Amino acid sequence: MRRRGLVTLNRFIIEQERNYPEATGEFTNLVTDIALAGKIISYQVNKAGLVDIIGKVGSTNVFGESQQKLDVFASDLLMRTLSFGGNLCAMVSEESDDLIPIPDDYPKGKYVCCFDPLDGSSNIDVGVSIGTIFSIFKRVTPDGGLGTIEDVLQPGRNQVCAGYVIYGSSTMLVFSTGAGVHGFTFDPSYGEFVLSNENIKIPPRGGLYSINEGNMNKWEEPIKKYVDWVKQSDESDGRPYSGRYIGSLVADFHRNMLKGGIFLYPGDRSKPNGKLRLLYEANPLAYLVEQAGGSATDGIKRILDIKPDDLHQCTPLIIGSKDEVEKFAGFMKQ
Ligand code: FDP
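^ thats the input. predicted complex w/ 2,6-di-O-phosphono-beta-D-fructofuranose below
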């Protein structure tokens, strides 16, 4: 096979777009803008311990959580980077209560973007991996004007692109436009994302389980029984599984996608819909995991089939290797 040499993110997207003669390049610009924001956030995250950028700014987000400076910075940066490219007609950010319009004087594009600017933010000041998650839809309202709530409240199966940037031991951008999941590692020496993980496939089975067991007393019986089951010994299916929970969704998801396993954030008695947000956490990761051959459900229903009715709604999320998610569903049906 002919070696392709160094494949930068831009070259990769252009090569992919060659297969779509109707492509306008609008989409290329959008992913490139997200990558640029990712590079800047990565730079800021890396020096979080060095400068006075971490700590609370005193404001609270829509969930009543106090925001930290880096979340606010990442959210503003994404808004500014994506507003002016002419590719979007509206945005949704975890850090803003309402739909974010594109400023008056700027062209309105045919896509909408929902993002969690800095997911896992409680880990910022302890040096643990965090990430930016994004989800892109084509608008459903007519081209030209501002986007509306209708454009963003689409079921996840309509996504045309989704991905995340993980700020970990290295910075990686992982995304899919519906033709496989591809990972790019940031090389700081020349400032480029370089293709490092082409066509990622999640193993169909995996021996890792990730759940916050501190919530156990609030779980319903099937969840307790499942978590009990993964801990029992059975050589035939590799149990007991190993527990791995970072408490930073992108990091837990990324590890399980590469190694195989299951991540669970179920509903419980105090939060029947769990904690994770459908539009900018569950949907994009569900799109990626399905593209990689895995599954994502709310315990029973496919995440990508949920029709949202609120920008910030939560959903239980069970995501990972196909067989593991199916096994969990079996417990829920009992
Ligand atoms: P965080 O509160 O630190 O922003 O949705 C946010 C999130 O982190 C996820 O990244 C993470 O998986 C989850 O919450 C952790 O929640 P628990 O602390 O309840 O386990």
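The helical segments are 9-17, 26-46, 69-83, 149-152, 221-231, 249-259, 278-291, 322-333.
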